[in-house]
# Entry
Amino acid sequence: MAEVVVYMRSPDETDLEILQLLVDDARRPYSEIADHVGLTPPAVSDRVARLQELDVIQNFTLDVDRTKLQNRVPVLLHLEVKPEAVERVFEHVSTLDKTEHSFQQLDGSIVAHVNAPNQDVHSWFREALDVADLVSYDIKPLAHYEWNTGITPADFSLSCAVCDNTVTSDGETARIGDEIKVFCCSSCKGMYERRYESIQQGTD
# Structure
């Protein structure tokens, strides 16, 4: 049987505030967050753990300003890629150790913010990528950039594991196997539980 979890049905305004505080500083102590949101540090820790189980928080990362490192120049790459090579080029660009952010657009073109070596950037580019996969490319130096990491209530919603509808305060949460799942209603939760139990019985 699936274990029903009795804590919060869906993330609320307090979770939103906790998330924003962590976005601003992921090393912020839980005691400081607790003072901001009016909870105890253990209660904050519990909420963060639940948000991790729901995959709202996936990891805590270190944000390094690579422009402060020696011999780096920030540039914006715009790549027009041959259709058959789009996925391969995007994966390669995304995994370059000098790439800050990369984006694949609907038309198959790729845009990336890269901190290239402060040398002949075009020579570095031709060594880093296989230009045979490209139709054309453009490299422009960046004078300034800023990323907005703010979180708003409109961004903060979970989808039902069955029907993909947005889960509201009337939704339900359950632990199914080793995972936390959220549902928009008891009908969807029951449907998912029956499906899960049927699969489990078939594998026994």
